[in-house]
Write a structure and sequence with these properties.
Elements: H1 8-18, H2 20-45, H3 89-105, H4 150-160, H5 164-180, H6 193-206, H7 218-234, H8 252-270, H9 275-288, H10 316-329, H11 337-354, E1 356-357, E2 362-363, H12 376-387, H13 393-403, H14 416-429, H15 431-448, E3 461-462, E4 465-466, H16 477-490, H17 492-495
Antiparallel strand pairs: 1-2, 3-4
Length: 510
């Protein structure tokens, strides 16, 4: 029981004194805690951190700091970034896919870098730089194709009477064709895609566009060449036998001739080593497919004699594409090619003589006087290509036949297929024939072109029949057919310079 005689203070102090050592220890610990806590708080709010860059260190220099520099008004303004040009059609799909991926991942995205166009090389994975067009021996063009450069187009166009509207129409056509190219590099529906790819590629090459030099169309040309290379490589085993040739399809003689023509020009303008063996084998197939009379037939038919109607199988229309391919092959510079082509072209002229009709100066379809198709331009062009500007009487009479026609794109007898050959025939002849034709065909084509760069159906419905099926076709192949032929016609001023100039001028008597 507590001692009531003691005061409250004495009773409180008594247990503390009894445990004085414990009490002293507690007081000392409390004092240490107070001192250390104060030190930590002081360092946190007063002293700088113990790591910093040199520029952040506190200086003991008491010299007043210099005033901040005034802005230099002579400095150039900050450059602004402009948006990159829109990608070409083949690259657009990849760019759009990447852009969609970026925008779906976050609410903001950086501009995509420009994708370098593919280059042609043996190793398609190697992006090796190619020499500039016309710069060095790699792409030295033969004289007859020298007008395809940018400067050459302008100079020859002025020399031979091209109008500004013609070149503008060509550019619109090329841009429309660029937009129609499939992702695999082809054009047209699957059944005839080889032929339409060859025609489209000829349009770009005719304008001097190559993978090396073209800024706007290098990707589209590269993809087209690669597509034909892939097709040709896939069918190389068919050489030496069968009736399909290197390029599949039916009638394959048209497709094979057109594609071979395009690849010959592509090799001449690029010297792409991949093309050489394909061109050589494709030309060899044409050589082996020539009939004894000098012509060529559907599917390179070599059956002796006439068909069931008693008509020779050699077809002037089919032959025209083989002759154009052979002419282009002779310009490639491939070893031995010109020598191999020479006797074949000589023999081909004999077949053209066989179908020539002296009464009206026309060249028939399978025999003289066969007017089912207007093929006089085929005969005249083929002879001028091979005779080197020294026309014979069939050329003179053929040109008169061409000049007897009425040119109207909307007319009932309009035949773009015939116009394609007639344009080249008159240009190669020069003289009065070219003056007459050039005065008419440019306006007909440029005034008929659609706003999108393609050409609409013609008025070719003569006496209840279609004079040129694809020219009136409304399907996907029809616009490509009309646009490629019209584009090639308007490029005539520089595609192949006139052979008639070698003999001192145009064809006499016209």
């Amino acid at each position: 029981m507590p001692d009531q005689s003691k005061s409250h203070f004495e009773r409180f102090l008594r247990p503390i004194l009894a445990s004085r050592f414990l009490t002293v220890s507690a007081l000392l610990h409390l004092l240490i805690i107070i001192l250390l806590g104060g030190r930590v708080l002081f360092n946190k709010y007063v002293e700088p951190p113990d790591f910093q860059s040199t520029g952040d260190m506190v200086s003991t220099d008491t010299t007043p700091a210099p005033p901040p520099p005034t802005p230099d008004t002579t400095l150039p303004p900050t450059p602004t970034l402009s948006a990159p040009p829109p990608p070409s059609a083949p690259a657009a799909a990849s760019l759009n896919a990447l852009t969609t991926l970026n925008t779906s991942a976050s609410s903001f995205s950086m501009p995509l870098p420009a994708i370098a166009p593919p280059t042609i090389s043996k190793d398609l994975t190697a992006a090796q730089p190619q020499p500039a067009f016309g710069n060095g021996p790699v792409v030295a063009l033969p004289t007859s194709m020298a007008g395809r450069s940018a400067g050459g187009r302008e100079a020859t166009g002025e020399q031979y009477g091209a109008k500004a509207a013609a070149e503008q129409a060509v550019l619109r056509a090329l841009r429309w064709l660029q937009a129609q190219q499939h992702t695999d590099g082809t054009w047209g529906t699957p059944y005839y895609h080889d032929a339409f790819t060859g025609l489209a590629l000829l349009c770009f090459l005719g304008h001097g566009e190559t993978p090396q030099n073209s800024k706007e169309f290098n990707v589209v040309v590269t993809n087209a060449i690669n597509a034909l290379v892939a097709e040709g490589t896939a069918h190389q085993s068919r050489f030496g036998g069968g009736s399909t040739g290197v390029f599949s399809g039916n009638p394959s003689a048209y497709q094979h001739g057109i594609c071979t023509y395009a690849l010959c020009e592509a090799y001449t303008m690029t010297k792409d080593d991949r093309l050489a063996p394909i061109v050589t084998q494709a030309i060899d197939y044409i050589v082996k497919g020539q009939r004894p009379d000098g012509g060529w037939a559907y599917s390179y038919d070599m059956t002796p004699g006439v068909d069931i109607k008693g008509v020779e199988r050699s077809d002037t229309s089919v032959s025209g594409w083989q002759i154009q391919a052979l002419h282009a092959a002779g310009l490639t510079g491939l070893p031995g090619m010109e020598q191999a082509v020479h006797p074949i072209m000589d023999n081909a002229m004999k077949n053209l003589d066989r179908v020539f009709n002296p009464q009206d100066g026309s060249f028939g379809y399978r025999k003289a006087g066969d007017h089912n198709y207007s093929l006089t331009g085929v005969g005249v062009l083929s002879k001028l290509f091979w005779l080197g500007g020294r026309p014979d009487h069939t050329v003179r009479e053929g040109l008169k036949n061409i000049m007897s026609k009425d040119l109207s794109y909307s007319g009932h007898d309009c035949n773009l297929y015939a116009w394609y050959y007639d344009t080249q025939a008159c240009f190669q002849a020069q003289g009065g024939a070219w003056d007459w034709w050039n005065h008419r065909f440019q306006d007909q084509l440029t005034n008929s072109q659609s706003a999108d760069g393609s050409w609409p159906p013609t008025g070719g419905q003569e006496a209840g029949r279609v004079t040129d099926n694809y020219a009136t076709d409304m399907t996907a192949d029809g616009p490509i057919y009309r646009t490629t032929l019209s584009c090639l016609m308007l490029e005539v001023f520089y595609r192949y310079l006139p052979t008639s100039q070698e003999s001192g001028g145009g064809v006499e008597g016209l």
